[in-house]
Specification:
heterodimer; A: alpha/beta; Rossmann fold; seven-stranded mixed β-sheet; 13 helices; B: alpha/beta; eight-stranded mixed β-sheet; two-stranded antiparallel sheet; 14% strand
Amino acid sequence: MMEITEGSHAVAEAVRLCRPQVIAAYPITPQTHIVEALADMVANCKLDADYITVDSEFSALSACLGASAAGSRTYSATTSQGLALMFEVCFNVAGMRLPIVMSITNRALGAPLSIWNDQQDSISLRDSGWIQFYAEDNQEATDLHIIAYRVAEDFSILLPAFVCFDGFILSHTYEPIDILSQEDVDKFLPKFTPYQRLDAADPISFGMYATPDYYLEFRYETDCALKRAKGVIQKVGKEFGTMFGRDYSALVEGYRLDDAETAIVAMGSICGTVKDAIDEMRDAGKKVGLLKIRVFRPFPDDEIAQALSKVQRVAVLDKDISLGSKGAVALEVRDALYKTGIPVKGYILGLGGRDVRKKDIKEIVSLVEKGIGDQFFGLRKELL
Amino acid sequence: MVDKAIELFDCGHRACGGCGAALAARLVMKGAGKNTIVVSATGCMEVFSTPYPETAWKVPWIHSLFENASAVASGIEASLKMQGREEKVVIMAGDGATFDIGMICISGAFERGHDFTYICYDNEAYMNTGIQRSGATPYDASTTTSPSGSCSFGNKLPKKDMPQILAAHGAPYVATASIAYPADLMQKIEKAVRTKGPCYVQVHAPCCTGWGFEGEQTIAIAKLAIETGLWVNYEMVDGKVSKVKKVVRKPVEEYLKTQKRFRHLFKPTRQDAEIAHIQSIADKNAEKYGIDIKLKKE
């Protein structure tokens, strides 16, 4: 059913349809509308879940960890400082192979304090073992939550997943969204069956410590599982497409890329702006295309190499920076294209909510054509 | 009644000979029974009981992090409730995880009123990392981060009153216990586990390695702590103190002399003022809880 609704509310509806049994969350801007909507559903018996109003994000994810280990489907949502506070638990959840799904309304990290959008928060957790989806619009953000549970809970994967969508830009924007029916989602996402659980009838120990004789293999197997998630995402994304008409089987998605000489690589809501800019550049005779990264972890290196094999140059847009180095996406795209010799330039932009417009994208294309890049873009020189 | 003959914390773990915490785990599990899910905080007990791929726990057991055991337990309890399951949730954490780093999670979980029992095995310092001072370390104890020295008598800070803090959260049942009184300890655990809501039991568990005494002295030293009034066994039901263990008090010196962590109070010279101060702590305990048995005159 199509509804004109706010991104956060659409995501809350999708989460409700996934029937989480335990929700633990702590309020933080711009995540609040999601968890408020879920609390309202629980208060009005529209969602049969235990909603734990925890003392911190650290406790939120810790409570989800316990609930997941005890055998429940669990959900949390956070952003920015909240995600940073969860850092330790994030690694723990992935290491313990618990399929928790969490929404990230992407927001900048302080200092200085900023409540506005960039993707530094989830990018900073790239090494934690969580699957990371990035949505371009609210329909995608909504659908990806349902897909995320299927992938995370697959017995060949058993890893947690972030569904990232840009704070305010998506979370607080109203768009027409197709909200699926409970009956349809139940067919796509069966009742949660834990692979193992804490159970007095069948006692097992979770979260033991590993000596140097064992630790390396635990890390290897977690890495293997995360890489296996590629295939499962492709399969589950295709199945979603067959059932609901929106295919998410591609880890990366090209836009007017077939004959492109210059490719822009981006993640999240900025892709919409890039597409509009590309349309205008195409009208002006420039052969420019977009490669949107929907799944950042596992990193789709082969898929990127294949999609960009025919372009002459690549401009990567990063709403993050590995301070002292470069943008995280640019570094990994360059690694994926290393063997091809195609030049890759990175642009750090939009941090802390700085607006990125079509003319900025056009300017970046002219910069990459001149071989200028690996720099911040859009700095206010008068402040420096 | 829980069957006390069943061992749910098995032998073969890696604790030191004479470890008070290992004995506490064994007794706690006898009191809790097999229909229990245990959540451990990082610490000595977690490390000596679960070196992968071996475990000493014959009940379902989980360890996540140092400071989040009560938040993990909150999630487990919520999950069990949603599944209509009846298992009891018991947290086992040391004093560092309880008095210091876990406080925010503990406060949140007790305020929310989850149905679990939190056991703090109190060995009065961070033993797993090498005997550093915690909020549970007693006055004048020498630890590796509060060492006695030419201008220090060791830890200058008082022991935090966790039972009172948790009673103030509205915990329906709070108790202190000691491994030297196993029947009392098991009874308190059983009562805590049976009581709905968040309950807290703080168990005095001497550490031979950290306190500096021979392993066969563990029980005797735990008993001396009670007999000198430096540890008081009591219950708090709905915040009211009851069932205080009464004693014919011995001077604190008898307890202090048994442990290397207090050796600097006696050697190279006897520190009368410091010993008198520790005696005053015991005297205050005695007055506050009314532990003294008044002997009738012949």
